[in-house]
Write a sequence for this structure.
């Protein structure tokens, strides 16, 4: 219980620190973020009410209240789900924009990351088990794919499969002409969304599977030299049982810890990939926020990413402490 208590305390302090940093960021930037936002709104929408101006200054710390009062007000608004108003798509609330983009990123990047992890672990375990054979040729092939710049691989896939063969759409998350009112719960929309997501997902899998495969293969080679694997072989256990229950199970523990961190960053999306495919996810939303100096939207996206990463790592810490008792005694 001491292990779990320490981990819970650590993540509570980390969460408080990151939210406080999120509060301070726009106030530490040069210039006045509130004036920049107000000027953008005036250029885009003409006259702005005094209420809107006051809310912007409250949000970004340009009012006459003390920093402590602003800090408490920020926590109060955040706990109520009020993340401010976006300049990029004024007057849409930031929380609404994030809620619209988040499912696209979680489904696409999350599923592609899980597929990449499973493929990498399975192929890496097989390559480590069959080390020195033709299976080892998978390592340089996947390493080359991993070393290719992310955006270049995405552009190649678009040029070949979308432009050249016309097998997949070029951009977007769905066909806006077929579904002008936006996403809907129909089979036609689901198949259309899957078709649009195939090339972005393939880009993620091809770019990341090599890392999982290489790491798992090396851990398998190391694990195969352990005494408990040698003992299992001496007992005459079936090779398949030794592979799954003794070698691969222990070799995968470090990869599981790395997978937790990767899974936490799924919410951040892939800015380059989403920009190339114009995919309506969190990555594209963040790019638009930075491009338009939309501080409220940047703060909201950063907050969601931070909480998700901490939550994923917290859950994996608990799971890791359960599957590997040694971790509980070394902390």
């Amino acid at each position: 219980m001491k292990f779990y208590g320490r981990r819970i305390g650590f993540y509570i302090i980390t969460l408080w620190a990151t939210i406080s940093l999120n509060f301070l960021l726009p106030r530490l930037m040069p210039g006045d973020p509130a004036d920049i936002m107000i000027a953008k709104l005036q250029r885009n929408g003409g006259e702005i009410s005094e209420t809107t101006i006051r809310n912007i200054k409250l949000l970004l710390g340009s009012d006459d209240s003390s920093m402590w009062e602003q800090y408490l007000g920020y926590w109060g608004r955040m706990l109520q789900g009020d993340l401010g108003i976006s300049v990029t798509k004024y007057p849409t609330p930031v929380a609404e924009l994030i809620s619209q983009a988040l499912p696209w990123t979680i489904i696409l990047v999350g599923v592609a990351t899980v597929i990449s992890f499973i493929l990498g672990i399975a192929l890496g375990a097989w390559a480590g088990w069959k080390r020195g054979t033709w299976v080892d040729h998978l390592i340089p092939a996947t390493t080359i794919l991993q070393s290719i710049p992310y955006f270049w691989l995405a552009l190649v896939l678009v040029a070949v499969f979308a432009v050249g063969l016309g097998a997949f759409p070029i951009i977007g998350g769905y066909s806006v002409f077929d579904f002008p009112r936006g996403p809907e719960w129909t089979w036609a929309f689901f198949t259309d969304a899957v078709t649009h997501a195939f090339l972005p997902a393939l880009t993620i899998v091809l770019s990341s599977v090599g890392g999982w495969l290489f790491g798992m293969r090396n851990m398998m080679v190391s694990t195969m030299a352990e005494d408990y694997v040698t003992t299992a072989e001496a007992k005459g256990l079936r090779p398949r049982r030794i592979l799954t229950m003794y070698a691969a199970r222990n070799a995968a523990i470090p990869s599981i810890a790395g997978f937790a961190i990767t899974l936490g960053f799924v919410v951040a999306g892939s800015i380059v990939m989403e920009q190339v495919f114009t995919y309506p996810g969190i990555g594209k939303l963040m790019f638009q926020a930075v491009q338009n100096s939309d501080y409220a939207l940047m703060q909201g996206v950063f907050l969601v990413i931070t909480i998700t990463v901490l939550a994923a790592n917290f859950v994996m810490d608990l799971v890791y402490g359960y599957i590997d008792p040694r971790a509980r005694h070394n902390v």
Notes: The longest helix spans residues 187-223. The mean pLDDT is 77.
